Batch of 2 targets.
Target 1
Amino acid sequence: MNQNNQSAEIIKKIQSSTRRGNLITYGIVLAAYIVMQSLVSTGHISSLLKGLLVPVCVYVIAAVSLNLVVGISGELSLGHAGFMCVGAYASSFFTNAYGDGLPNWFRLILAIIVGAAAAGLFGILIGVPVLRLKGDYLAIVTLAFGEIIKNLINVLYAGVDSNGIHISTKSAMDLNMGPDGKQIIKGALGISGTPRLSTFTAGVVLIIITLFIVQNLMNSRAGRAIMSTRDNRIAAESIGIPVTKYKLLAFAVSAALAGAAGVLYSHNLASLSTAKFDYNTSILVLVFVVLGGIGNIRGSIIAAVILTVLPEMLRGLSAYRMLIYAVILIAMMLFNWAPAAISWRERMMERLPFGRKKRTGEED
Amino acid sequence: MSFITYLKDGISLGAVYAIIALGYTMVYGIAKMLNFAHGDVIMVGAYVALMMLTKTGAPPIAAVLVSMAACTLLGITIEMVAYRPLRKASSSLAVLITAIGVSYLLQNLALLIFGAGGKTFVNVVSFPSVSLADGQLNISGTTIVTILVSVIIMVSLTLFVNKTKPGHAMLAVSEDRDAAQLMGVNVNATISLTFAIGSGLAAVAGVLLCSAYPIVSPYTGAMPGIKAFTAAVFGGIGSIPGAMLGGILLGVIEVLGKAYISTQVADAIVFGVLIVVLLVKPSGLFGKNIQEKV
């Protein structure tokens, strides 16, 4: 009896500390939003940085959603950009085809719902076969699916007329549309003329929603089941946790959120093509996740912001900028992850008079 | 162009993929890491060979040897500086991301030195082409050399791994690193040797790739690198004959897909076949299926 009380107390303690951690994360996002927004409204911000506000939100959402798969579910996914691509195209098609005359914020909400639903559907379709594989095999198959999605969308033509939606994979002529038809997806040329509905505020709201979904999922029964399958698949299976079902849940939610990031991205640019969603983008998002700390949501956000802004800040160095970016990336990885660097850091911390004695546990 | 001609082109491209995949598969089998910078070592190899040929006017064979030496050195350096400190890191993803950083670094160095535009590559192969079936089928010297070289490399690698002492050390390290160390195998030296061989092969692949498709740019290695990795997984990662077969099959599927279906979705077909193979045989064609035990 006493033991039960004790463990209940421990659980309560853990819950309250995670709740506090979550609140801090929301607080950081809100504070950053207020600071940036007031800088924008008083004009104390370069147009370069202003142009980065929405892309930063896109990458933050993408990184948090990928962390759900990589950090919480423990599977390496290299095809995240594919889901962003699906979300971007589905929502842009929808916005261009329907919704003229509705208020902008409502159109954006509809677009996000459509994009997230489409990407989530793809997440389930791809997740069912993919999640049977393990480790690096799973990684290469997600990479393959990402490339396949990109390739297929590149040959996709679609338009809409009074009879409904027409789709072809050959050419615009094969759409056979009526005289009132409007061609929207133009193969490799992508989609142009999408209204720019994304705003910084919308991006931040979407980040908060993403955080809400991911953090609540992590602290739910399903989230604990997902983490148990990550830590020991066989043990989890043996106590009756349906591993595939929970992994699929994490994968689909992650895909839907990546799709929402894609919506934000596509509604921020006048023209959209698949070139922006190749494996380099998937890898970039993975870099955010690993650099920020696998499984650490707040870390993902910070890493995504820094690594999106950094190349632009280095623009003054022109030709050397990506070189410096690469060197910084390697140095940060070595500093953060190498066992020798970690023990060196701990020694330094102990020597400092105001330093922490030793890390006792993870904060998040 | 007949089917046989496409098949020949596919085998030729596949042989290049196979050489790259051999490097991938050895590094993966022994160091247990995906070396994403491998594709960019190919690019470096091609540039070094090109510089040797055009700037110093060296004979082709010397250019290839210098390029191999440069890439070997590069591979060993990358492993020592960027990968070795992370070998005991708590997550295997750390070294993967560092490899991506190295890949960016090599690409951007090349961008700074050689510029973004593609440079025309000089064909290093001076082998006569062969005409078969009354001139219906013309096999270029490059194709013959590529296929020959890949077969020679595969055979000598197999012999090296199975018959020599360093080769046995590699097998031991790939099986169980700690146990190998206890048996007196120098793990660091073995992993360095693996990177040296893999990078040397990448140089050969770079020269052959750019002889067949004579443009070299900072991004030349990226896509063949990914394809070769796919080929290595296709054949069962860690397996030498698997990498060879996977590479050739991938090349053939890609060329046939481009010829008969569509150039735009050829990559989708390649990756689609990979997915089907992995779903039927989750550890690749030649992969060992290791049962997990508690």
Target 2
Amino acid sequence: MLNTLNGLFIAAVLAGTPLLLGALGEILTEKSGNLNLGVEGMMFMGAITSLAGSYYYEQAVISAGGSPNGILSSAIALLTAFLAGAGGALIYSFLTITLRANQNVTGLTLTIFGTGFGNFFGEYIGQKAGGYVAVTETTKKAFSSLHIPVLSDIPVIGPLLFQYNWLVYFAIIAAIVMAWFFNRSRVGLNLRAVGEDPATADAAGINITLYKYMATVIGGGICGIGGMYMSMVTTSGVWVHNCVSGYGWLAVALVIFATWSPARGMLVALIFGGLTIMRMYINIPGLPVQIYDMFPYIATILVLVITSMRQSREHAQPKSCGLNYFREER
Amino acid sequence: MSGAAEYAVKMHHVTKTFGKVTANKDVNLELRKGEILALLGENGSGKTTLMNMLSGIYFPDHGEIYVKGEEVTIRSPKDSFTLGIGMIHQHFKLVDVLTAAENIVLGMEGKATVNRREINKKVRELAEKYGFDLEPSKKIYNMSVSEKQTVEILKVLYKGADILILDEPTAVLTPQETDRLFAVLRNMKKDGKSIIIITHKLNEVLAISDRVAILRKGEYIGVVNTSETDQTQLTEMMVGRPISLEIERPLVERGEKRLQVIDLTCLNGDGVKALDNVSFEAYGGEILGIAGIAGSGQKELCEIIAGLYPSIGGSVLYSGNHEGVPVQERILGLKPDEIVKKGISMAFVPEDRLGMGLVAGMDMTDNVMLRSYKSNKGIFVDRRNPKELAERLVDELEIVTPGVDTPVGRLSGGNVQKVLLGREIACHPSVLIVAYPVRGLDINSSYRIYDLLNEQKKKGVAVIFIGEDLDVLMQLSDRIMVMCGGKVSGIVDPREVTKEDIGLMMIHAGDPKSGSGNEEVTA
Amino acid sequence: MSAHSTQAKEPFLRMVRRDAISSRKSWGIRAAAFLLSLVTGGIVILLLGHNPISVYFSMVKGAWGSQTVIYETIKIAVPLLITAIGISFAFKMKFWNIGGEGQILVGAVAAGAFGLFTAHIFPKLPLVLLMMLAAIVAGGLYGLLPAVCKSKWGTNETLFTLMLNYIALAFIKYLMNGPWKAPGSSYPKIAMLVPGARLTKVLGVHWGWILALVLVVASYIYFNRTKQGYEISVVGESNNTARYAGINVGKVFRRTMFLSGALCGLVGMLQFAGSDYTITEGTAGGVGFTAITVAWLAKMNPFGMLVVSVFIAMLERGSNAIQTQFKIPASAADLLIGIILFFMLGCEFFISYRLIGRGKEEHHA
């Protein structure tokens, strides 16, 4: 029983990490007042570019007669994933911030585009590679569980806390940094003001356009890294058609569940991660396993309904979210 | 250069247009160092637009701006701060979920981290220096209007501004709070700060300013020394021709009781009583004015009567005629459509014209049928009659519009109000409730509205007029009900009390002076 | 000092809202944006080492080149058009129904409940009517749920409807693996609808296309001529005004979302009984999302939606042709649709605003 619970915890952390990354990106985006529904698309873009980045790096090294370096390969994957997510978010930002297009429709379009982008290049590169794209063992190893001296060897605690792949720790650190950023830093304070009340922030001399662009683009980059987790860790460096499949939308839901708090986001990611993999660990007699797939979505709906029933001023979506800001409007 | 240096701000030939509307045309303005300059003009005369160009919100189409003798370009609010200009806006620009101190340091340069204890201490010290009472760690959404204004003023002082612009700072204050504000402004002047105060209240201009600059319809009219002028001259400059400030109050025999409100009580969004045992009666053939500081329960009162806001106690009785048949109903708790179904003819002109009374994106025809589209049978709408009515309204009320198929959101404020009031009057109401009907309107439109209300009064309609300008209320109304904090302070005859009496009643509910006001006063 | 010209200090570019723009000019801007998007897509194709013009040509040919492909293209356009009309009901009142996918799926399941299990009981006509009715009710109720929560507690409908998509999807997976699994099948799938219950073809395509055209006209009349359509517009502009006018906003939300979901549900039935003859995870296949952009691009005008959905159907059908001909993966359709939509979304700005360069005088036409 205890083993099952430990196993469930570890699997939940692993399944929750891409959700946490996607959600962190979306929290940062929404704090600037942009509701970007393109998380799914940006994750797809990050997923394929990171895989492609690693893959082409390895091919280049191998054809030059060398042997690829796992750390460099992951660094390239990280960078390309971030840039791809950020690039998608930049399109979104340009359309909504500069050209004032509707945020909902633009976000959905980004999802259509990003999904097409991911699947298209995934298949295209696969065709060129003669069937499918896959990274070598070196890169796969770089994305597998770490072994931290001493810490990983502690009984029970070791496997439970110190034997994950590096992206898990990356996501946790990102969440902590973001929590600090919103609560303690000057720029974070300004950003919250932009999302809550852009006219006020504008009058206070804050460059709304810059803040919105930066938050949305960096947020998109983080979503891209979440996508990288899907292609590099979840599917072990092989392109699987539609590999992000709804995780981006679940990340959007997670933002609500975590009430826009990066710290709470970690806990919620664990819960969601747990729900998505629970069927492999706990079998409730009479309950078909496919029904487990519904749990995270049903849970989110319940949270959505419950939070809307008791309205709170501070644990709510930033007030200007979804609305574009124009200074000279009159 | 030496000559220019005595001016804190100089604006030369400044022009600003929004689409086809010219908000400022070739305006010149000079603010001397260490003076209080009143910028006077009617609503819509371009005062706020002009000042927004100093604060970096708008960028002028033409013209030059000099600050402290140097020609400057103000592209953003940040540029404006750098020049030492601080503007206190009419609508407070504060972030609700942040504290006073957080709002004050918002957007400022400084260390990467925010030390809350330190900024709270600094803000507290600054507040004490000027004699303000403020808790720096209080969240804005827990604050009163006057506290919020204090935060706004501290915000610009904290940033070291020496040129202050206040946009209608007294609009939301009681007379006593206004006096306190003026005392602070005089202190700041002694400190060497240069101040522009935007207002359209002549008595305040005379009380506080050194000089007065006047704008009219976006154009600069002139500047006079306050000590050498009087209300008549300023009014002339402001409105362009000597007009009678008198508003007509026709003598009409008071009719029967149309509306009786008994012990009405309701809560606001925070669970606090927004109305507390409000009782009054409204009669046909009279205008009942309702005075009070903004947010004293006026909005809730009219929305409850119109069936748009929930109450927790009391009752509202209506008696009127519907096609010759007397109708008597308890209407509390009925939805707007249920009220109509019961044959009650009550019209309501809400405060938020384009957000509640009209649909900005629809044309006049579609707006005119808003309250009556259900009247014909069948599933289809009838646009023929509404179109005729819309065309008639354009003729009768002289509404300036390219046509009845132009979206009403494109019309000017006065014309929007004419559409709204015209539609409401067209349904021949027995009770007409109007909330702030002349807000933002020019003087001619305002008088047209007063005339329309008087016409209704003469027809025997019970008019309930919620206003903010005490002068207007006192001249137009037959009786005035004064509200304070959701309670009725008293109902008085405007011919028997002074403005100051009403001002006092607005801030002290149940003041002994107003005790007699609850008794019936006959017109 | 004063020798400085004002112009030198103006920002580089400023934008000014246009008062009105001639429809010719606004369509010109849209056409230019459309061409630019094709050029951008062409550059992508060029970078992949193909000739954009021949790829585009092959796409058009792949969609309209023969009777067979025309039928296929129309078969793609029909669900897109009806879903877009359904979605526009909600969008007109600014209710962001992005749950079209889920509503299509439950519609298909409801139709399947009759089509798969009662085909031996009922003759064709009542069976088809039953399937339609079931799909309409199921889709409608699925759309009604978020509307109820929105009108009661103000629950965010965007995320609510979104989540419902994935719940419906999981439910179909459950049916495929469990109770509805086709007998004798080794892998999870749902049985085929018996040929006798399939929708009749009219001019080569199931009669859904006639229904779609009827719905275009009917929804146009509904939006512009009926009291309910008027109420939707008022609610969409301002909930406060609607309440003031005595419109029960919650009721309009619920009624309209039922209709919106019902039309999407109907699409599920058409897909099941007219096109796929079975139900899979791909029965909705992204139609619910694409339809949103169709409705938006057409500015909620049903006739516009007809044009846009036929166009997008052409891209999707055409991308199959380029997959076989040029070995360009069919996902290229999504990529290209994304690019075109980005441009169309962006160009609306230039219809509403004018840019004024530094030093240029403003002039009014």
